[in-house]
Design a protein that fits this description.
This protein has 146 residues and is mostly helical. It is 53% helix and 0% strand.
Length: 146
């Protein structure tokens, strides 16, 4: 009799397990709540890009370039005394006429050695992904001509 009871209990447990398993697979999954739309910042306007690029270029010039080229671009910065050759004088209008915009931008990004000039002029690899800032920096340098 005990064997019959155990057998019956096993059958009931197995049947119950099958029923539970079936009911879970037959249950339709409830749709997930809709995900919140990602916050999208408004696209910057070209004028806003130009203004921020110009501001960044001016900051870069004051932090990186002034040391050698001077605040007004005369090639007379505090570190210029020990440099041979002397840093470029950006006030020299004849030099500006002799070089292209691309040349200036290449020096800014890759350094003097990249164009056969002094390796003391360092590269700025962080600007390679910022063409608007490079263009603004070139424009800033061009504006120093007298």
């Amino acid at each position: 009799m005990l064997q019959r009871f155990v057998r019956l209990a096993l059958i009931l447990v197995a049947g119950f397990a099958l029923c539970v398993g079936c009911s879970q697979t037959e249950r339709k999954a409830e749709p997930a709540p809709p995900a919140a739309a990602p916050a999208v910042a408004p696209a910057p306007t070209p004028a806003g890009d130009a203004v921020s690029a110009k501001a960044e270029a001016e900051k870069i010039f004051s932090e990186r370039c002034v040391t050698c080229h001077g605040a007004k671009g005369g090639g007379d910065g505090p570190a210029s005394a020990g440099l041979v050759p002397k840093p470029r004088n950006f006030q020299d209008a004849a030099w500006h006429q002799s070089v292209s915009d691309e040349y200036i931008e290449q020096i800014v990004q890759y350094g003097g050695a990249a164009v056969g000039k002094s390796p003391a002029m360092p590269a700025n690899p962080d600007l390679m992904s910022k063409p608007a800032v490079v263009a603004a920096l070139r424009a800033y340098v061009r504006a120093l001509a007298k």
